[in-house]
Amino acid sequence: MTPTSRPTLRDLRRHIRSLTDKRRAVLLRRFFKTGPGQYGEGDQFLGITVPQLRKLVRPFGALRLSELRRLLASRWHEERLLALMILVDRYGRGDRTEQKAIYDVYLRSTRHINSWDLVDASAGQIVGSYLAPRKRAPLFRLARSRNVWERRMAIIATFHFIKRGEFADCLALAVVFLDDRHDLIHKAVGWMLREVGKRERDTELRFLDQYAARMPRTMLRYAIERFPLRLRRKYLRAEPVTSRGRGHTTSSRPRNTRTIRPPGRVGR
User: Fold this and answer.
1) Which string of DSSP letters, residue by residue, matches 84-150?
2) Spatial distance between the Cα atoms of 116 and 106, rounded to a whole number of angstroms
3) What integer pLDDT is reported at residue 5 of this predicted model?
4) What angle do CA 21, 16, 91 make, to 5 degrees?
C-alpha cells in the first residue's frame, strides 16, 4: 500500500499476519471457551491484542463495505473484531446514508458476530444508535431469536438508550429475558440493569422489587453488584421462583412498589 493509495483487504490481512502470536492465541482460545460444547466452540485466534487492532482502525478505515463484510465473515476472531471496530468508527463519522448501510450490513452479518466481546463492542454503537430515533421493534425480534448472540445484541443495544437516560426498552427486554436459560444473557441483562441504576437508582430498585424473585441468580448478582452490602443481602434473600411458582414473590418486598410496564411505544 502506497501513501496515496486506497487500502485493500489484502493489505490489511498481510499486516494482520505480521502481528500473530501463537502463544497468546492459545491463551485466547482458553479464555473465550472454544472447547467442545463451550459457547465459543471452534473459534480461532491469531493472538493479536485489542490495542494492536485499534491502531489499524483509521489506517484501514477506507475499506469498502463489501470488503468489511468479507472481513467480518473471517474464521479468525481478531479479523471479525477489527471489522466491527472499523464499522463502529465509520458509523460514528458517517452521514445518514452510510449509517443506514452499516446498520444493514450489521444485521445481515449477525451469524459472524458470535462472541460476547464482538457483540459488546458494537451492538450499542451501531444497532442502539441507529434505532435511537426510530421504532425499537428490531430489538424485540432479536430478543426472540434462538441465537444467543442475537439475543445479547438486543439487550446490549439498549446501552445507547441508557446513556441518554432512556430506560424503558432495557426494562422491557429484561422482563423478556427472565426465563432465558443462557448465563451470557443473564450477565448482560444484569449489567444493563446496573447501568440503569448508576443513573437512576430508584428505577432499578422498582424493577428489582417486582422481579428479583424471578431473576436468575447470575442476573440478579450482576444487577446489584455495586449495592451496599445490606441492600445486596435484601435482594439475594428474595425467594427463587420454581417452574410451577412463576410470579411468586418474597414477603419482604415493599407493598407499594409500582408495577413496571413497558410504555406503549416499546416493542412496536
Assistant:
1) HHHHHHHHHH--HHHHHHHHHHHHHTGGG--SHHHHHTTIIIIIIHHHTTS--HHHHHHHT-SSHHH
2) 15
3) 76
4) 125
Domain boundary among 121, 150, 178: 121
Residue 38 lies in a domain: yes
Instruction: Give per-residue pLDDT as tens, 137-150.
Output: 999 999 999 999 99
d(CA 19, CA 253): 55
What grid cell was written down for 187?
450477565
CA torsion angle 227 229 230 231 (round to 10): 20
Asked, for residue 129, whether it belongs to a domain, the answer is: no
Instruction: Indicate the burial class of 11 (C-beta count within 10 angstroms; 0-12, 13-18, 19 or more).
Output: middle
Residue type present at position 203 = T
What domain range is 115 assigned to? 1-121
Report the pLDDT value the prediction gives residue 238, as an integer from 0 to 100: 79
